[in-house]
Amino acid sequence: MSVGNQRRLEPVLRQPATAEEAELFAALDLGRLPRHVAIIMDGNGRWAKRRGYAARIFGHRAGTEAVRAATRTAAELRLSGLTLYAFSKENWSRPAREVNALMDLLDEYLVKEVPELMENDVRLVASGNLGDLREKTRRILDSTMEKTAGNGGLVLNLALSYGARAEIARAVRRAMEMARSGELSPEELTPEVFGQMLDHPELGDPDLLVRTSGEMRVSNFLLWQIAYSEFVVMDVLWPDFRRPDFFRALLDYQRRDRRFGGVGPE
Ligand code: IPE
Ligand code: IPE
Ligand code: MG
What ligand has the least distance to the C-alpha of 102? Predict the structure, then answer.
């Protein structure tokens, strides 16, 4: 079942809007919003440093407020999916203190956020090598996913211990196992069939990929799924990302001429 094929309601700003937000919202073409947005939430460390904090974790903590704002905005706009790159496979190489603090923060977020997710009709799912997470975090994650499983609005997909190459390798392994058991013949393995073996194919490919804090790289995120995504890099550091920034990214997206290899509008 494709989430994107479900009937969508009209976008409505539920939280009160500032004059700036109202103006940006009015400029959006609500009939041409992306269905699935993916965000590389970068810049927490730089945010902490600029504020004079010695520990990067202050930036990560402040970043959870931006996660809340982005999720609310995506829900208000009736997007189908929001995938947030929260922790990469490579992030395990950070100092143990930072990794532990990040996992504590994740536990706290997953517990505290339930009422907010319920209120906004958000269903939580996760992508990545979830088996790498510590048992406590996995338990809390499972519990929050279960509690929100009946919500029919936005699907919030947290990429945790996520690496696109690992995801692709996992899918290849699955395909090979299916071939071995006779469920799938090598000739049947088309890009469409293979795409279904990746994490949460029901979200569809992201229409828009946003990266905050100015870095122009993909950092092993959704390599397969972003084949034709529009890429918006913003200077704002993730902890400062709020509704107007989301609207600006969407306006940038709407100025693009998506061609998918064709010639586009003549
Ligand atoms: C992104 O912020 C959050 C994670 C990778 C977990 P960073 O911690 O990478 O922040 P910068 O890039 O150092 O500013
Ligand atoms: C990408 O950010 C991963 C997440 C946002 C979770 P990084 O800060 O880890 O990426 P690099 O190291 O700058 O490529
Ligand atoms: Mg970074």
Answer: 1
